[in-house]
Amino acid sequence: MVVAAISATMSVNAQVENLRHEIGVTYGTGNVIFGDGIGNAFEAIFNSIRDVKADNEKQFGTLSLEYFYHLNDPKVAIGLIGAYSEESRDFMQSGTKVGDAKKTNFTIMPSAKYYWSNKEHFGFYSKVAFGATFHSESKSSDLESDNNDKNKVYFATQISPVGIEAGLKNLRVFLEGGWGEQGVIALIGLRTKF
Question: In terms of DSSP bridges, do strands 171-180 and 21-28 run parallel, antiparallel, or are they unpaired?
Answer without folding.
Answer: unpaired
